[in-house]
Amino acid sequence: RDAFLILLGAFTMHILSILSGGFNDGTKNEIVVSTHFNSTWQVHDKDLRFDEPEPQQALDEQLRVIETDTRTKDSPLSDTEPKPETEKKTADVSKASSLPATTLAHHAPGWTIFHDVYMSNGTLFVVTDDDPSDFPDPIYITSTGLPAVNSEENIRARLPTKYELDFISTSEAQKRWGKRAGEAENRVWTVQGNTVLFNDPGSQFLDHYYHFVAELMFGTWAFWSGAQSQYEAPRNRDSPISNLFLGSPSSSFSSTSSPSSKSDPSIPIFDRAIFSHALSSQWRDRPGFNSYFLRAAFPSLTVEVQEDWEDRIRSTQPLRAGALSPSSAAPDALLGRAYHFPTLMLVDRSAAFKGRICGGMNQRTAAEAYYYMRDRGLLRLSGLEYDFASETPKYAAPKEGGAWWEDVRKRVVQYAGAGAPEHRELLSSEKGDIVITYISRQGVRRRLLEPDHEGLVAALKELVQRKNAEGGRKWEVNVVQAEKLDRDEQVRLASRTTVMLGVHGNGLSHLILMPVSERSTVVEIFYPQGFAHDYEWTSRALGHRHFAVWNDTGYTWPNQPKVDYPEGFQGTEIPVHGPSVAKLIEDRIEGRI
């Protein structure tokens, strides 16, 4: 009798588990990415899904900024060319008996491209029947999106939980969002096209031209274009590698443009950008260059902001079964709804800082995206190439179709009017004149001593006058205060600049619009003993030569100074010896350095 009762009890529990299976909270199998937060949220209120470092360990690692990406798994590499594949068609998820599983296409800390990822009630879901540990640790993918402060409490508060990124099985996804009795379709709606989701907080960095364009958009295009590159280059001397995505001109990305060809290697542009933590005013900078650049470079791009993302969150909140069917056996049961993103690139600043390069070497989030693609031979390079194994950068002539950034640069330059016939020869300075552009900061904070500014201008003018008297190519110097030029004028000038110089500051962001050549150079003036990687690293990533100047001494890779912000770094009494800077520029153009 006892045995019979035990069997009866087990059978009853089994039946009950089946009946209630579709309504559990799913915490057993899931990964979640919530890109919103409650301002009253506290760390201890959240049920952490992932193992996190002990508080002191997390603090020590991040305060020293030397974290190593120990769990990040690269996408599988192959030494052989992938078999050609036809363009992937977006699955009709509304009627699918099994929702498409999520695949990881490319990943570097802070930069991740998914296929078939889902969002429900503010959480990103990875749907997979594989072990979640086969994916990178979520701390390298996303964060809570809070502004970054260098404190233990804030570091912990930015660690992702199951509310930020969650993994669920395909069967669990179908239980949550699949059609039920009385329903004709699944409760899943596809967001057509390619989406970039920026998880950065709107109250930090986004409203700064350098951080928005020369870091965020710069890294975005490096990762996006590299992922779709049809350019084949050796990963090393013995191991050729072709694109990890393609294998043929047709990609697994959605594309409204015609396939690329060898003569037209343009990259399909993503369809929408979502700034999930930024209001419409928070991603725009005061001078207006962020929106100018975005609309010029990506004219068809749809932009969504925090309010739009909140709309999507509300529209995927669960609904009660009784709302669909009054005769439902469980009218109060909650039925999930979700958006399906065929291709989504998730960008997260906090996650990038956990990478070895950004977190431990140069504090540039774009560097994680750039080196991931560069080291796999998926970026078209030109200009000076910097190799950690060599102390001398080597010049690489532009490949067919131009370097990886050239598509973006040309669109912005031509938008500003520099594509007119009289400017076409200036789009490449290989055979052009030498144009020196000194971006003066004398009207704003962080500027030169006035006598030193006047001495620098005099030395530059004397250099140009002397070189023109010698004959040969024409030399030109422009001394400008960027705030006194309109945006088109600034872009046109940058687009024909050979040497750009100025005090460390936002105006040097225009180096991203300079044509890359064997002579293209950026000269950045610092308060002595001060240094930051911002413009130095971006210059090198584009193929320019960069010099950091302390008064009368210039430093260049690989002997650049260490990062430091001494008293006086932000001040109005930065010294510089004009004749020394003029000689550095002349020596650089003449090939002596």
UniProtKB/TrEMBL annotation:
<dbReference type="GO" id="GO:0005783">
    <property type="term" value="C:endoplasmic reticulum"/>
</dbReference>
<dbReference type="GO" id="GO:0035269">
    <property type="term" value="P:protein O-linked glycosylation via mannose"/>
</dbReference>
<keyword id="KW-0732">Signal</keyword>
<dbReference type="InterPro" id="IPR049625">
    <property type="entry name" value="Glyco_transf_61_cat"/>
</dbReference>
<keyword id="KW-0325">Glycoprotein</keyword>
<keyword id="KW-1133">Transmembrane helix</keyword>
<feature type="compositionally biased region" description="Basic and acidic residues">
    <location>
        <begin position="63"/>
        <end position="92"/>
    </location>
</feature>
<dbReference type="InterPro" id="IPR007657">
    <property type="entry name" value="Glycosyltransferase_61"/>
</dbReference>
<keyword id="KW-0812">Transmembrane</keyword>
<feature type="signal peptide">
    <location>
        <begin position="1"/>
        <end position="20"/>
    </location>
</feature>
<feature type="region of interest" description="Disordered">
    <location>
        <begin position="63"/>
        <end position="96"/>
    </location>
</feature>
<keyword id="KW-0808">Transferase</keyword>
<protein>
    <recommendedName>
        <fullName>Glycosyltransferase 61 catalytic domain-containing protein</fullName>
    </recommendedName>
</protein>
<dbReference type="GO" id="GO:0016020">
    <property type="term" value="C:membrane"/>
</dbReference>
<dbReference type="Pfam" id="PF04577">
    <property type="entry name" value="Glyco_transf_61"/>
</dbReference>
<dbReference type="GO" id="GO:0097363">
    <property type="term" value="F:protein O-acetylglucosaminyltransferase activity"/>
</dbReference>
<feature type="domain" description="Glycosyltransferase 61 catalytic">
    <location>
        <begin position="434"/>
        <end position="515"/>
    </location>
</feature>
<keyword id="KW-0328">Glycosyltransferase</keyword>
<keyword id="KW-0472">Membrane</keyword>
